[in-house]
Design a protein that fits this description.
Length: 824
C-alpha cells in the first residue's frame, strides 16, 4: 500500500515537471530513485510530440551520456521505462539536484532531443557509523564538563533525508552535545556528573544518529565508557571490630580470627596488605602474627592467661595504590583460662617449736595458698594429712591457720612432719604438697622416775666409812635442764639419829655412801628415802625407798648364860656317886649376839679330869655322865667346855665346870622327890603342859610358815625377796611392824621376822634355818633391841626359871604369841 501511494506521488511530480519543461522544450522527468526495473517514467513519445505509430518506425531510442543505459523506450507505447534500479547516491553523491542527462534519438529523420531526468532522493540510506562501538577510557577522577569527541555518522542521503540529529541513550552521567563544523554535525560526550568506577566501571551508551526522512532512519553506535580506576577508596574492613576467644594453651600457629577488608579499587589500588597498626607494641607482635595477604591472625608465642587475659589491638589494611590508602579495625582476643598452674602453698608464719603443753587450738602456722589460675581453676582446697594432732582452720580467702587439736607430747613425738596437700578445682585438678616440720619443745612435764620403786641394799656391818652402799638412778624423759636430775636424801630419823649422819648421797649420780660403819647387832635394817629432782621450773621430783640391810658379821663370841659366869670363873656342880650312865649333870647354855650361822653354837668338851666319865651334847650343851660313877672316881672333877659359834672366823669361849661327886648327897633328894609325890607330880605336870604348849606352838609355827612360804612363792615368783608388812593401827600399845623376809638365795634359807614399835624402838627377831635341818630346828630366837645385850641376858636370867630349855621355849612362845596376835 505504502509503495503504491509513493508511486502515485511520483507520477504527480513527473507531470508537474513535464509541464514546466515542455516550455523549455526540454523533456524533463523527475523520478525518485530506486524505481524498479520496468517502472514507467513517462510517455516520452508523446512528450516529444511523436505519434504513437512513429515510435516503432522512427526507432525512438534513448542514449545515455554516461554510457550506462538506465532507461529504455517501450516500442509499442513509447513509454520511458526504467531498465534498472537507479541509486541516486551512487550517481550524484551529495550533489543536488541529481540530473541524469539523456538523449532521445529518433531516426527518419534523425532528431535528438534532450531529456533530463532528475532523480530525486528518497530516504533509502540510514545514518551509519564507521564502527558500531566506540570505546572511551575515562579516569574516574575527571571533572564534570569534560568533553569527549565522538564519531559522527554518515548518511548519503541528502536534504531532509540526510543526518539530522544525534541522540544519546538515557544515562546519569553523560549528556550529548552536537557541534557543527563545516556543516557537519559532530557529536560530543559531555560528563555531567562525576564518575565512580566503584559504582559503575563501564558505561554503555547508545548514540543514535537520526535523519529527517520519512520514515525516519537512524543508526546507532555503542559508546563504551571504561572508567579508569583511581585509588580513591581506602580498604574497608568487613567489621570494624573482631572478637575471638581462645584458650591459653592454644598451640602456636593456630588460627584465631580472620580479618578481612575490601578495597573497591582495582588492581594495585585494590590489593590489600594486612599489618598490625603502627602503634602496636612489640610484646603483642611477639604473641600474634598476621598473615599480610589473608588477614588470618595466628598464635605466635605462648599465651598465658595469667599474664594477660585480654588483648586489644588494631589491624591496618593498606592498598598498593599511589597514594596508599589504609583502613583499620580493632581486634579483641580474650584468653580463657586453662588449669595450667598448680596451686602453691605458702607458709606465712610458722611458730616452731611448739611447747608440748600447748592447749588445743594453739596456732602453729599461718598458711596461704595461691593459684595463678582463675575461677574454679584457681580455687584451692588445702588439707592436712590425718594422723597428726593438727588441723587447718580456714580464715580469709585462701588463708588457713594450722592449730593443734590434741595434746602434744615431746617425749613421744619430738617433731612432726606435716604434709599439706593443696588441690585446685580445675579439670583435671592440679595439686601441690608441702611438708611442714614442727618441733615440739620440752616442758617439764615428767618427773624423774627411779629405776626401782624401792631398792634393797645389803651391807656388811663394820665396813669402813665412806664405802659405797649402792647407787640409785632415776631417768627423766624430758630434755635439757628439765631432765637434769639431782639426788638427795629426805631427812628422817633412824633410832633417833638423822639419816644424814649415816649416809651421804652424791647428788649428781645417785651413789650412796655410808658415813660410818654399822653394827648389825644394833641395827639390822633401816630405810632411807631418796628424792630425785629435776632442774625444770617448776621442778618435779619423785621418791624411792632404799632398804639397807646390815648383814651380820661374826663379830661376837658366844656368851655363856648358864652356869652364870658372874659367880666366878668356875661353876660348881654336884653329882651323886650313885649316878648312872646318862645322868644329866648340868646344861651349859650360851648365846651369840650374832645372827644365823654366826650364832649357831656348838658345845664341846675341851678338857676333863676324866674324859671317860662325861660327855657334852654338841647342840644342847647338856653335860651327862658317860657311865656310872664308880667308887674309884675322883670326887672332884673339872670340865673345860668350849663353846663355838659357826661364823667365819670361828669365835669361841670356854666355861669351866667343877663337879663334886658326893656319896650320899642325892639320896635324900631322890627320896625326898619320891616321898613327896605332890611336888614331883606337880612338876611333871608342869613339864607336861610345857611340852604340850611347845608342841602346839611348834605345830602352829610350822603351819604358819608353810602358809607364808606358799603365799610368798606365789606373790613373788622369781623375786628373791618376799615382804609382808603389816601395821596395826588399832592396838595402841602394840603399834608394831612385822616383817618376814625369806631369802632363797644360796644354801641358807633365811627368814627374818622383824617387829618394831614405831613409837619407841624397833625390834627384830631373826631365825635361821639350816637347809639340812627341819623347820622345828630353831636354834635361837631372841629379841633384839637397842638395850645392851648383856642387860637383856641378865634380865632374862633373873626372870626365867632355872631351866635352859624353858628359857628357849618361853622365848619361842613369846615370839609366836606376839606374831599370832599380829597375824590375827
Ligand atoms: C658417782 O660419783 C662418785 C664421786 O665422783 C664416784 O665415786 C662414783 O663411782 C660415781 N658413781 C657412778 C655410778 O658413776
Ligand atoms: C617425797 O617425799 C616427801 C617427804 O616425805 C614428800 O613431801 C613428797 O611429796 C614426796 N614426793 C612424792 C612425789 O611422793
Amino acid at each position: 500500500m505504502g509503495r503504491i501511494s509513493f508511486f502515485r506521488r511520483e507520477i504527480y511530480c513527473c507531470y508537474f515537471i513535464f509541464m514546466w519543461n515542455s516550455i523549455e522544450a526540454h523533456v524533463r522527468y523527475v523520478i525518485p530513485e530506486e524505481l524498479r526495473g520496468g517502472s514507467v517514467v513517462g510517455n516520452i513519445a508523446k512528450d516529444l510530440g511523436l505519434d504513437f505509430s512513429e515510435v516503432a518506425v522512427r526507432n525512438l531510442r534513448i542514449a545515455s551520456e554516461s554510457g550506462k543505459q538506465f532507461f529504455s523506450v517501450a516500442a509499442e507505447s513509447g513509454e520511458l521505462i526504467v531498465n534498472e534500479r537507479i541509486d541516486r547516491e551512487s550517481l550524484c553523491g551529495y550533489a543536488v539536484p541529481c540530473l541524469l542527462p539523456l538523449e532521445a534519438v529518433v531516426e527518419n529523420p534523425l532528431q535528438l532531443h534532450r531529456v533530463e531526468i532528475e532523480i530525486q532522493d528518497i530516504n533509502d540510506n540510514t545514518p551509519s557509523f564507521h564502527s558500531n562501538q566506540r570505546v572511551l577510557n575515562i579516569p574516574e577522577s575527571i571533572n564534570p564538563g569534560a568533553k569527549f569527541l565522538l564519531e559522527s555518522a554518515d548518511d548519503p542521503d541528502v536534504g531532509s533525508n540526510s543526518l539530522q540529529a544525534y541522540t544519546l541513550g538515557s544515562n546519569k552521567y553523560f549528556v550529548l552535545n552536537v557541534k557543527t563544523q563545516d556543516g557537519i554535525k559532530i557529536p560530543e560526550l559531555v560528563l555531567d556528573k562525576p564518575l565512580d568506577r566503584e559504582k559503575q566501571a563501564t558505561h554503555r551508551l547508545i548514540l543514535t544518529a537520526v535523519d529527517g526522512g520519512k520514515p525516519v532512519r537512524s543508526g546507532t553506535c555503542e559508546v563504551k565508557v571504561i572508567v579508569l580506576d583511581i585509588n580513591d577508596n581506602a580498604p574497608q574492613f568487613e567489621k570494624s571490630f573482631y572478637e575471638a576467644n581462645v584458650s591459653e594453651n592454644e598451640p602456636i600457629g593456630n588460627e584465631m580470627v580472620k580479618v578481612s577488608a575490601v578495597d573497591l579499587d582495582e588492581g594495585a589500588n585494590g590489593e590489600i596488605e594486612y599489618a598490625f597498626a603502627d602503634k602496636t607494641s612489640d610484646a603483642l607482635k611477639a604473641v600474634f602474627l598476621i598473615n599480610p595477604t589473608t588477614g588470618v591472625i595466628t598464635v605466635k608465642g605462648k599465651l598465658d592467661f595469667e599474664q594477660a587475659n585480654l588483648y586489644k589491638f588494631d589491624i591496618m589494611a593498606k592498598d598498593k595504590g599511589n597514594p596508599q590508602m589504609e583502613g583499620h579495625c580493632s581486634v579483641k582476643i580474650m584468653i580463657s583460662d586453662i588449669n595450667d598452674n598448680a596451686p602453691e602453698i605458702v607458709i606465712t608464719s610458722l611458730s616452731s617449736p611448739v611447747p608440748e603443753n600447748s592447749p588445743n587450738n594453739t596456732v602453729v602456722a599461718l598458711i596461704s595458698t595461691k593459684d595463678a589460675d582463675s575461677g574454679e581453676n584457681g580455687k584451692v582446697n588445702l588439707t592436712v594429712a590425718s594422723g597428726s594432732p593438727f588441723k587447718l582452720i580456714p580464715s580469709l580467702s585462701n588463708r588457713y591457720t594450722l592449730v593443734t587439736t590434741g595434746s602434744l607430747d615431746r617425749e613421744k613425738y619430738p617433731e612432726y612432719q606435716i604434709k599439706l596437700n593443696a588441690v585446685d578445682s580445675g579439670l583435671p585438678t592440679l595439686h601441690a604438697e608441702k611438708m611442714v616440720k614442727i618441733s615440739i619443745s620440752d616442758v617439764n612435764d615428767n618427773p624423774p622416775v627411779f629405776s626401782q620403786k624401792s631398792y634393797t641394799v645389803y651391807t656388811r656391818e663394820n665396813t669402813v666409812h665412806g664405802s659405797i652402799l649402792c647407787s640409785v638412778s632415776a631417768h627423766d624423759p624430758d630434755l635439757g635442764q628439765n631432765a637434769k636430775i639431782s639426788y638427795s636424801i629426805l631427812e628422817s630419823k633412824v633410832q633417833d639419829v638423822y639419816v644424814s649422819s649415816y649416809i651421804y648421797i652424791n647428788s649428781d649420780n645417785g651413789t650412796i655412801f655410808s658415813m660410818h660403819s654399822f653394827d648389825h647387832e644394833k641395827m639390822k635394817v633401816f630405810q632411807i628415802k631418796v628424792q630425785a629432782k629435776d632442774n625444770g621450773s617448776p621442778s618435779l621430783s619423785s621418791n624411792a625407798t632404799v632398804h639397807v640391810f646390815i648383814v651380820d658379821q661374826n663379830d661376837n663370841a658366844p656368851a655363856v648364860i648358864y652356869p652364870s659366869a658372874l659367880m666366878g670363873s668356875v661353876s660348881h656342880q654336884r653329882l651323886p656317886r650313885s649316878a648312872k650312865a646318862g645322868y644329866l649333870v648340868t646344861k651349859v647354855t650360851a648365846v651369840d649376839a650374832d645372827s644365823g650361822h654366826n650364832a649357831w653354837i656348838s658345845y664341846r668338851l675341851a678338857e676333863a679330869t676324866d674324859a671317860s666319865l662325861f660327855t657334852v651334847s654338841l647342840h644342847t650343851g647338856e653335860v651327862r655322865t658317860k657311865r656310872s660313877v664308880s667308887e674309884q672316881d675322883d670326887s672332884s672333877q673339872r670340865l673345860l667346855i668350849e663353846i663355838q659359834d659357826n661364823g667365819e672366823p670361828v669365835q669361841s669361849t670356854t666355861v669351866t665346870l667343877d663337879i663334886l661327886i658326893e656319896d650320899a648327897f642325892h639320896e635324900p633328894i631322890s627320896d625326898f622327890r619320891h616321898k613327896n609325890p605332890e611336888p614331883d607330880q606337880k612338876s611333871s605336870k608342869i613339864t607336861l603342859y610345857l611340852m604340850i604348849s611347845l608342841a602346839s606352838v611348834s605345830f602352829l609355827c610350822l603351819v604358819t610358815f608353810f602358809v607364808l612360804l606358799i603365799k610368798c612363792a606365789r606373790s613373788s615368783r622369781g623375786s628373791s625377796t618376799c615382804c609382808i608388812r603389816r601395821s596395826d593401827g588399832e592396838s595402841k600399845n602394840h603399834n608394831r611392824n612385822l616383817q618376814i623376809q625369806l631369802n632363797t638365795d644360796g644354801p641358807i634359807k633365811y627368814v627374818e621376822v622383824l617387829g618394831g614399835d614405831m613409837m619407841s624402838q624397833s625390834q627384830s627377831f631373826g631365825s635361821y634355818l639350816s637347809p639340812m635341818s627341819e623347820f622345828s630346828d630353831f636354834t635361837l630366837v631372841k629379841p633384839s633391841s637397842t638395850t645392851d645385850f648383856t642387860n637383856t641376858l641378865s634380865v632374862l636370867d633373873a626372870s626365867l626359871p632355872d631351866s635352859t630349855w624353858t628359857f628357849e621355849s618361853q622365848q619361842v612362845s613369846i615370839y609366836f604369841n606376839l606374831y599370832l596376835s599380829k597375824m590375827c
